[in-house]
Design goal:
The chain has 287 residues and is α/β, with parallel strands linked by helices. The chain is built from eleven helices and 14 strands. The protein has a single domain, classed as Rossmann fold, CATH 3.40.50. The strands form six sheets. The chain has a four-stranded parallel beta sheet, with helices on both faces. A two-stranded parallel sheet has the order 1-2. α1 packs across α6, α3 packs parallel to α4 and α7 packs parallel to α11. The radius of gyration is 19 Å and the shape is globular.
Length: 287
C-alpha cells in the first residue's frame, strides 16, 4: 500500500522473496518491469478495494493518512477490506513517523516512551498505529510499526532550502534532529516483514547525534553553499511556514537499540556523514 520512493527501493529484495502486488491509482510500467503485479485502486475509494481480499500473506503499508482530519480513514478502509476474507494477512509492516512522540526536549527516546503528538499530522499517525495494533490483536496478525524520522537520500537532500537562505535556530535554541537514509528504511521494511516481533514498534534511525542547524551546516559545506543564517525562535516564527516550524520546535534523540537487537539491522549509512559522502560521489546530485 503506497509505492513511493522508499517502497520502490525495497522492491528488488521483496520480489526475490515474494510475489508482490501493489495498489496503485494508475498503472506504472516501471513497476511491471521489476515484476510487480499492479491492482488499480484507491484507499479513498472503497469500491475499488475488493480485489485485495484474501490476496496477501504479508502487507507493507506506507500510504500516509489524509492531510486533514483527526484519524486515518485510509488505514481503516484497508483493514475493513482485508478483514472481509477468510484468509487474513499474517504480518503487516507500517511506516509511521517519529513525530508521534512530540517534543521531548532533547531527551533520549526509546519506543516505550508515551506518545504525545502535538501536530495534527502526527496525531493522525497515532490514530493509524492504534487502529493497527487493535486489529492485529483481534486477527492474530503480527504488526511491526516503523517510526521513521527525517528520510534523506542523494535525491532527497534539502539543498533548495539552503539556497533560499531559510534560517535555522541559534545554537542555544536549536533542536536535536534524527535521520534515516531511504535505502536503510527500505531494508528495515523488508526485515520487519520477515522477522519483526508481534505488535512491536521500532525507531528506525541512524546513529547521528546532531542538531538541526548543524545538519544544514554540514550540507552547505559539503555542496559549497553558504551556511544558513541563524535566528532566534521568535524571529523564525515570522519567516517560515507552520510545517517547518513544527519540525524545528520538536527536539528528541531516538534510541535505535531495538532496531539493531531485534531486527539485526546493519545500516548502510550509519551517520549523516556517510549519507552525504555517498551523495557527493554521485555527480547527478543537484538537490
Amino acid at each position: 500500500m503506497g509505492c513511493g520512493d522508499v517502497v520502490r527501493r525495497a522492491l528488488p529484495a521483496l520480489t526475490r522473496r515474494w510475489r508482490v502486488y501493489a495498489l496503485v491509482r494508475s498503472a506504472d510500467p516501471a513497476l511491471s518491469a521489476v515484476g510487480v503485479t499492479q491492482i488499480v485502486g484507491d484507499l479513498d475509494q472503497p469500491a475499488t478495494l475488493p480485489r485485495l481480499r484474501g490476496l496477501a500473506q504479508a502487507v507493507l503499508h506506507s500510504a500516509p493518512p489524509p492531510s486533514e482530519g483527526t484519524g486515518d480513514p485510509r488505514t481503516k478502509r484497508l483493514l475493513a477490506t482485508l478483514g472481509r476474507s477468510r484468509s487474513l494477512p499474517r504480518s503487516l509492516t507500517y511506516i509511521s513517523t517519529s513525530g508521534v512522540y512530540g517534543d521531548c526536549g532533547g531527551a533520549s527516546v526509546p519506543e516505550t516512551r508515551p506518545l504525545a503528538a502535538t501536530s495534527a499530522r502526527a496525531r493522525r499517525r497515532v490514530a493509524a498505529e492504534s487502529l493497527l495494533r487493535h486489529t492485529a490483536c483481534r486477527w492474530g496478525m503480527r504488526v511491526s510499526i516503523l517510526r521513521a524520522p527525517g528520510i534523506y537520500a542523494t535525491e532527497r537532500l534539502p539543498l533548495e532550502r539552503i539556497r533560499r537562505g531559510d534560517p535555522v535556530l541559534v545554537a542555544n535554541e536549536d533542536s536535536y534532529t534524527n535521520h534515516i537514509h531511504a535505502d536503510d528504511l527500505a531494508h528495515a521494511c523488508v526485515t520487519a516483514l520477515e522477522c519483526g516481533r508481534a505488535n512491536r514498534a521500532y525507531n528506525i534511525s541512524d546513529d547521528s547525534d546532531i542538531r538541526m542547524g548543524d545538519w544544514f551546516d554540514k550540507l552547505a559545506d559539503a555542496f559549497g553553499l553558504p551556511r544558513p543564517p541563524r535566528a532566534t525562535l521568535a524571529e523564525v516564527r515570522t519567516m517560515l511556514s507552520p510545517m517547518l516550524l513544527s519540525f524545528m520546535g520538536e527536539s528528541r534523540r531516538l534510541v535505535n537499540t531495538r532496531m539493531k537487537r531485534e531486527l539485526k539491522l546493519k545500516l548502510r549509512y550509519p551517520t549523516v556523514d556517510d549519507g552525504i559522502g555517498a551523495a557527493l560521489r554521485k555527480p547527478s546530485c543537484s538537490g
